[in-house]
Structures are given as structure tokens and as C-alpha cells.
Amino acid sequence: MSDQNQAGITRLLNEWCEGDKDALNRVLPMVYEELRKLARGHFAGERRGHALQTTELVNLVYLRLAEGKAQDFKDRNHFFWYASQMIRYILVDYARRQTSQKRGGGAVGSLDDADEPQAIQGMDLPTIISMDDALKELEKTEPRQARIVEMRFFAGMSHVEIAETLGLALSTVKRDWKEAKANLFLALNRDRPAE
What pLDDT score does 60 carry? Predict the structure, then answer.
């Protein structure tokens, strides 16, 4: 995406934040394909015939944006992180409705694969629910780590993009990411029986 398009997206997002409701309608065509790519990434590991489809997921994100309060986005990365949060919540809500298991999904034996953006792709529904529960637990004690996990794991943002969006040093983001993976590993495997 060109610098001019990125600046246009940021300008329209700022206009929306300042109360121009039509700015959201003008920015959507500019970000639609990237939102579809983000949604497809979340579906990559799902079984065929998933009840939610990419277009429906993007439409649900748009509706939540349109119905909600305008956010103060610093830039396009911040917007896509926020959209990825919405996708996470929609998918977790869907997973909770589809399974009556509170826990019991395949635990993530190692979060080393999480070094790859959008590692959620290969998770089954119960594991997505467990991951969401673990992330909520992490938010209580380490909110910055939780935000970094959301941005890296769910939005597929690079360490550099996260550092820019949060205004942190790159070394801080990398250190927090490493600690967050360890904390999530412990939370995800705490209730699992010993083998």
C-alpha cells in the first residue's frame, strides 16, 4: 500500500473519530481487502464449511464499527489491531456457542509457533476459547503483554509495527512477547492432567 493511501486511511480515520460518520463509509473500500485478508488468516486452519465466512466476518466487523463509538486511531496499524480484536471476539463468541466445553481443547504444548503471526490459524474451537480465557487472565496482571499478544498473535503485526503503534522500544516489545508466551503456556496448561 502506498504512503499516500496510508495517509488517506489515517486522515479518514481521524475524521471519523472527530464525528464525521460518513468517513467510515469512505475508508471501508480502502481497507476492505486488507480486512478480508485478516479474516481469511483467522479461518485458514478452520474446517471447510465453517458457518461464518470471510465476507460475513468482515461485514460483522464493519457493523460493529458503525454501531460503536468512534475510536481514536493513531494510524492504520492501530485500526487493523482494533479490527483484529473485533474478529477475535466474534470468533470466540462463535466458538463458545458451538461447543459446550468450557475447557478441554488441545492445549498449546509450545507457543514457539506463535512467533509466526496469526498462529490462531490451526487452533480448534475449544483451544481458541482456552486461549481467549488465558489472554483475559493475562490482561489482569500484565495488560501490556496482553495487548502485544493480541497485536502479534491475532492481528499478525510485526514487532516493529507493535513498537510503533504502542510507542515502545523494539527491545521492550520482544521481551514482553517472550514473557507473555511463557505466561500463556502456563495458563493454558495449568488445568491439564499430568501424563
Answer: 85
pLDDT for the residue numbered 109: 42
Domain end among 91, 113, 128? 91
pLDDT digit string, tens, across residues 127-147: 778 888 888 999 999 999 998
Q: How far is 144 from 153, CA to CA, in rounded Å?
A: 14
> Range of 63's domain?
1-91
User: CA-CA distance, 44 to 50, in Å (whole number)?
Assistant: 11
State the Cα–Cα distance between residues 178 and 181, nearest whole angstrom: 5
**What does DSSP assign to residue 169?**
-
| Cβ-Cβ contacts under 8 Å for 57 (sequence gap 6 or more) | 39, 42, 43, 87, 90, 91
> The dihedral of CA 147, 148, 152, 157: what is its sign?
positive
Q: Give the number of domains in the chain.
A: 2
* pLDDT tens track for 54-67: 788 888 888 888 88
Going by C-beta distance under 8 Å and a sequence separation of 6 or more, which residues neighbour residue 188?
A: 107, 108, 130, 131, 134
Report pTM: 0.66
HEC per residue, 65-101 = HHHCCCCCCCCHHHHHHHHHHHHHHHHHHHHHHHCCC
Q: Give dist(CA 87, CA 95) in Å, integer.
A: 12
